[in-house]
Amino acid sequence: MKFDFTFQNPTKIYFGRKALENLKPELKNYGKKILLAYGGGSIKKNGIYDKVVDILKQSGKEIYECNNILPNPALSKMLEGAKIVKDNNIDLILAVGGGSVIDCAKGISVSAYAEGDVFKRYWINHEELNNNVVPVASILTMVGTGSEMNGGSVISDTVNKIKADRCFPPHVFPKFSILNPEYTFTVPKYQMVSGIFDIMSHLMEQYFSGDDDNTSDYLIEGIFKSLIHSTRIAIKDPTNYEARSNIMWCSTMALNGIVCLSKEEDWEVHYIEHQLSAYTDCAHGMGLCAISIPYYHYIYKYGIDKFVRFAKEVWNVDDKGKSKDQIALEGIDCLKKFAEECSMITNIKELGATPDLIPKIANTCNLGGGYKKLNRDEILEILKQSYQ
């Protein structure tokens, strides 16, 4: 392990078919006023809303609501929730939904008692968090972001076309998260596979960095192989509990801080996708998929040994008689073929990007990168390649 590290993850996970039974005893640890945060109404259709509300009422809680939190949660919705929290002295924010809802809940938590332009302070300038926060908990209904066990919050300023991320310290992490794989059974296939590529991208952003022998890389390879195997089963049988439970736990493990320990990291694909979706409002995982293939084609030579390892260990590419370039490119091709097999989007044109938008997206991306530090022109070229 190359770098020293300190690891802390305070989130308690309740996992399995009976996980919701733990909500009532957990609620005893918090005050009377609960803000229930959720999305566009799917939890009402599948019955989860009624179950949660019933438990809250049995527990004697006052329920306030912040609903219609959409994918790529908007700054305006976050500020609306923050006002509810402050005006009503909310004791716990309970997020019921996928990563967007949980991300927004964390944003509400840190913004309610903050002063000034909170988006600029915490998401753009990454200032130190210096105000009181409200506890957050989550009930997960769609996998992909890992937000149920981390401090990440991605918020979109829809007016100024800025989508920005912030990883808050451990006291902002959900205090507890309830993960029942059965709650993901009714997620439409498009959203399911979008979330799956989000998991893959989290793994790759951490994997494609460094040249040291790191335990974290072995863990990533194992999670990746489990994810590929279970995805193929879940696509054919969306109610296969074993497959959906594996996918759910792969998602949590991919971004709860374990597999990045003592690692250099990349995250350039995410930086580019954030601005793609700021302009197109595309599904996050699909945007990542469309950008990843041309991005890795562009940078693989700068970290060729890791790309060779990826091809061999994750995709079982036979290296006999092949050059490193051939093996590495075959691994990237396996990734693309898997995406196509799963009906993922591999072209930003299909996500609403137009030729006139591409320079705007490139010009507003954060500059970063792992094996290759990109400039604006290189990001522009990658976007053009992902448009073809």
From TrEMBL:
<dbReference type="GO" id="GO:1990002">
    <property type="term" value="F:methylglyoxal reductase (NADPH) (acetol producing) activity"/>
</dbReference>
<dbReference type="GO" id="GO:0046872">
    <property type="term" value="F:metal ion binding"/>
</dbReference>
<dbReference type="GO" id="GO:0008106">
    <property type="term" value="F:alcohol dehydrogenase (NADP+) activity"/>
</dbReference>
<keyword id="KW-0560">Oxidoreductase</keyword>
<dbReference type="Pfam" id="PF00465">
    <property type="entry name" value="Fe-ADH"/>
</dbReference>
<dbReference type="InterPro" id="IPR001670">
    <property type="entry name" value="ADH_Fe/GldA"/>
</dbReference>
<dbReference type="InterPro" id="IPR044731">
    <property type="entry name" value="BDH-like"/>
</dbReference>
<feature type="domain" description="Fe-containing alcohol dehydrogenase-like C-terminal">
    <location>
        <begin position="193"/>
        <end position="387"/>
    </location>
</feature>
<dbReference type="GO" id="GO:0005829">
    <property type="term" value="C:cytosol"/>
</dbReference>
<dbReference type="GO" id="GO:1990362">
    <property type="term" value="F:butanol dehydrogenase (NAD+) activity"/>
</dbReference>
<feature type="domain" description="Alcohol dehydrogenase iron-type/glycerol dehydrogenase GldA">
    <location>
        <begin position="10"/>
        <end position="181"/>
    </location>
</feature>
<dbReference type="InterPro" id="IPR056798">
    <property type="entry name" value="ADH_Fe_C"/>
</dbReference>
<protein>
    <recommendedName>
        <fullName>alcohol dehydrogenase</fullName>
        <ecNumber>1.1.1.1</ecNumber>
    </recommendedName>
</protein>
<dbReference type="Pfam" id="PF25137">
    <property type="entry name" value="ADH_Fe_C"/>
</dbReference>
